[in-house]
Amino acid sequence: MSEPGVDRPADRGAGAPSPQHDDTDDLAMAEAPRRGAGKRITALVHSRVGVIVLVVAIFFAMWLLGGAQPVATRQLLTLAVWGVMLGGVLALGSIGLTLIYGVLKFPNFSHGALVAIGAYTAFAVMAVLPEGPRLGPFSFGWEFLAALVVAMPVVGLVALAVDRVIYRRLRNQNAALVLFAMASLGMAFFLRSGIYMIWGPDFHFFYQGRPNPALNLPFNVRVQADQLFILALALALVLLVYLLLTRTRMGKAMRATADNPQLAQVRGIDTERVIAWTWVLSGALAAAGGAMYGLTSQLRPEMGFWLLLPMFAGTIMGGIGSPLGALVGAMIIGIVTQMSAAFLNPAYGPAIAFILMIVMLILRPQGLFGKPGG
Amino acid sequence: MPLLNVNSITTGYADMEVLTDVSIAVNEGEIVSIIGPNGAGKSTLMKAVFGLLHPWQGSITLGDRDISRYSPFEIVAQRMCYVPQVANVFTTLSVEENLELGGFTLEKREIDAAKERVYELFPVLKERRRQKAGTMSGGQRQMVAMGSALMLNPVLLLLDEPSAGLSPKLVDMIFERIVTINATGVAVLMVEQNAQESLRMAHRGYVLANGENRFEGAAKSLLEDPEVGRLYLGG
Amino acid sequence: MIQEQWVKAIFVAIPLVLIGLRLIRLHWALRIPAAAACGFAVAVLLVAMLPTGILAYLVSFSIMAGIYAILSLGLNSQWGLTGHLNFGIAGFFAIGAFTSALFTMSMPTGLLANYAKQAFGLEMPFLVGVLAAAIVAGLVAFLIAIPVLKLREDYLAIATLGIAEVIRLAFQNERWLANGPQPLRGIPRPLSCLVEDPACAWLPDSLATWLTPLAQRDYIFPYLVIVAVFVAVIYVALERISRSPWGRALRAVREEEASAAMNGKNVASLRVQSFVVGGVIMGIAGALYGPYVISISYSHFRPLFATFLVWVMLMLGGSGNNRGAILGAFIIWGVWSGTAFLADAITPLLSLISDDFASRSPYLRWMLVAILLELIVLYRPKGLLQEQKVVSLFLPRELPKKVPRTKT
Lengths: 374, 235, 408
Description:
The structure holds three protein chains of three kinds.
Chain A: H1 24-30, H2 37-46, H3 48-65, H4 73-104, H5 111-128, H6 142-172, H7 177-199, E1 214-217, E2 221-224, H8 225-247, H9 249-259, H10 261-266, H11 271-296, H12 303-318, H13 323-340, H14 349-363
Helix pairs in contact in A: 1-2, 4-8, 4-9, 4-11, 4-12, 4-13, 5-6, 5-7, 5-11, 5-12, 6-7, 6-11, 8-9, 8-11, 9-11, 12-13, 12-14, 13-14
Chain B: E1 4-13, E2 16-26, E3 31-35, H1 42-49, E4 57-62, E5 65-66, H2 72-77, E6 80-83, H3 95-102, H4 108-121, H5 123-127, H6 138-150, E7 156-160, H7 168-183, E8 187-191, H8 195-201, E9 204-209, E10 212-218, H9 219-224, H10 226-232
Helix pairs in contact in B: 3-6
Chain C: H1 3-23, H2 28-49, H3 52-82, H4 89-104, H5 112-115, H6 126-148, H7 153-173, H8 175-178, H9 205-211, H10 220-243, H11 245-255, H12 257-262, H13 267-293, H14 303-317, H15 322-353, H16 355-359, H17 362-379
Helix pairs in contact in C: 1-2, 1-10, 3-10, 3-13, 3-14, 3-15, 4-6, 4-7, 4-13, 4-14, 6-13, 10-11, 11-13, 14-15, 14-17, 15-17
């Protein structure tokens, strides 16, 4: 899978001079002999490989911190598989974040609230639909799928409406980044209080007290069928986004707008329309993420805020503006968060995700797949 | 009637006035060059023509349409295309994708035909069509930028300093291509630092200074005008 | 007026006199008596006219608004002065509150020790607690600043938001540190002996007798004075800083980082310094918050109350303007408190729609404050009081109106 929106080292084979190219991992290999050892080490640490090695090292340090208890391989493996599932859900949020960040150049602090609204919308739809029989090994019936299909466009439209009311005005005023960030923080609280008003502060479940037995997979890994469904659906949606970005006209226009908004206008792209579709797409993905998260956990109004930091972490790990990066970043965050539960208080999961993000920002601010300086 | 008519416009950024009462015109099939010292407002004029800035006063017409309030994408639909001076390619997209975005409003079939036309003009782009534009050299980027602008088969092409930052050999090559493009019936309005060279290939020229019209006329007569020569052509 | 009211009036007068000193534009020889006279007159009027309950409400309101004013001033020294986008105010506030609590409290003993855990309890005086809060918060700010301030401003916002969450999680989960999920109870109140029956031993008899009418619940009156003095001192200090060469250098960093660097300023170090100053001030706010509410827990330091509201305050008051920071704190805390009444008032209306709605009316307040922020961002992004272009201590305050910048 080749990545849209990113300089790939493989593309440099043609031998052209590359004035803006700064792929440090290549440099670390190719130019190492000409540099001092210190620089070589710095370059290595800042390279993709180096960052991943560091992530593993941090992970190991956490294990030591946790008292280096012997952890059953089986448990670690199960946690890792769960991490992949969590990563899938996070990825849907992270991809939306990265698209908005890329096209509109601001961190959308209300993205978590969109995820929560997605979950609650799905909940509301399921409440009005008759409860059908369970589908195969899954805990849900067709009404969940229907709710998912309804929630995605609904949240997409919510995101679009917010843009029309707030962010478009700010764009027209050429407002500074801080105002966008503030406005989105305000929106996060606005949307969350909307959830409180409509659904109240209590927990909700898609299915109250329905058993959800785990399947036994090879290597003694225990996973619920729902979790496998979540992962499959998340990956399918990510693939769809990828095809949309690389194959369709609107997708290419989105990438172009993210790359250079003014030039996109010059090339005859109606950037306002592109922005509108970006909001709809990222809102819909957020809704899918929220609904899927709701399958495995209870719904709470603050869930959006809890998910926000891991989603940001995934976005930044992967590199802003890179959907493939967001997927990989979210997977790393999901896996590390879950596996850390083997030796740390699980409440610190978000903290671990966050520390990884900070390390990434310091070592390689452009993320694993981002463009340098972007 | 001229193809493009900029009718005594005044405009600028926020509350800073850059252009005062500037008028220019481009006839069909013409190359018109705008020269002038740094800070004369040449690039601002280009942006105003292309709808990136709107005139505070005065009007801009293309054909018989008033485009003063048009957005760039509406102007592109009128087949006037623009090549900015800097940041004029999508660096993270391939050459081919850059061209396709140039023909954003076209049908798939038309895009393929337009691409072939551009590849004919710049064969090197065909060889490198899968390369990311950001990894190309300055001259090749300029070709990608011009090629993208040509995808729509424009009636009028706006070029903002097409020779900026290029080696003399490449400058000649780019100018030569501009003449070739013009020969196919595309009118060209360009802004150039390289005043002598650009007037040599242009039909007519304008001299801007301090955001105002200073001189205008046939390119040849501007080249021969002693005052223009002394002030703006470096002797 | 009875004696109790006179005593209260004196306490209420002190903050008013401080405000008067700032507002009255006269020569100092005249300003001090004028401020004293006005402040005292207003205080007497307030105490005489208002029913006891409302007066107490206003005083408590002012204490919280004053604590928020300190947070807002701290944020202003980061955002207004240097342009740091700190979305993690809650973290520094929490550190200040817990640090000073641990420094001033005693270790739980006996049966209580089974239920309440804390890392230490030093039984230090209040001011030592404030100092410790300032130092620890400043230290944490310093440790955060080194890696994080190199980042772009939007990354900084995300990073600080995350740091505040980590800090909150630590206080929530580490029982040994500050009683974890349970509140830390019984934070000692400074000068509480003023309102206790055997009054402070060091107090002259005449004063002690004079203070006798005050009951325990009137502690808010002396505490208002303490908070007001802190607000005033921090305000004056920040005003002096922003007029000093250091303040000028910080603003230069904010406006044109590259040219500040070319002029020989150590940009990285300046940025760290201003972040630390802000952290210290937020820590002090935390130290003042603890004794007021007596028991604190991690849940007090959620982003809504401790970060979001402060930003709304500073945005409304005017970034870069210290007076605006204080004004914004009072207005927004007023709006926040006022919306509680509003929410009560519309409860019957909401219950027409559904009973559920009526019981959720408190959440309407959040919505209203969020809407207020959006309105500020859209229509008044520079706030009520715009930044004063102060250049030097030696130039007059009122400079010609600044020319609007072409692009912001």
